[in-house]
Amino acid sequence: MSTLPPTLGPSFRRAEPDARRLSLIEACARVLAKAGAAGASVRAIAQEAGVSPGLIGHYFGGVDALVTETYAHVDAQVSAALDAAVAAAGGDPCARLEAFVTASFAPPIGTRALLATWIAFWSLVTARGDIARQHDEQYAGYRARLEALLADCGVAADALRLAAISTTALVDGLWLELCLSPGCFTVAEAGAMARRHLDGVISPDRAPG
């Protein structure tokens, strides 16, 4: 007989597997940040999560599948932060575009912890075909969202692809340097550089020479 209160027992049992899966995913992200992809073993992740190593096999079938789901989970968290920034910017298309671009420079995206986890994922792109495909899909989704925001600001359809690629490269570079060397420039300065780039993309005739 269950010792859980009757009113809580069924819902608790339904939620428990999801909660355990999430705890393993979060533990995997922490291990990747601390030890890199090479250190993300079943034993290390289980120890980080405070569970038996057998649970990783039970819920994911192995460490490779867990890393794949962790990559998707971290990407979803980044996407949620970007969505929140765009929503908070209101209805002005250019304000929404600027919010999407500059959100990467501040927490929860602009942090060394996220950078460390992301570097571990990047290190697997050349080693695992499934991670390479996942990387391509995730970045394609980011660029598609950026293209839509650029289009809302009046960027011509034939210019959208390269505008999104150049903006993504700028954001990635600034984000990387901010996380690696935060004393080099500030979040505000990163935002100002990004806005200058966007001004040139949206109104190239008014871009500084």
TrEMBL record:
Coiled coil: none annotated. Keywords: DNA-binding, Repressor, Transcription, Transcription regulation. It holds the Pfam family TetR_C_6. Residues 18-78 form the HTH tetR-type domain. InterPro entries: BetI_C, Homeodomain-like_sf, HTH-type_TetR-like_transc_reg, HTH_TetR, Tet_transcr_reg_TetR-rel_C_sf. This is TetR family transcriptional regulator C-terminal domain-containing protein. Residues 41-60 bind DNA. The keyword Metal-binding does not apply. It comes from the Bacteria. It comes from Novosphingobium cyanobacteriorum.
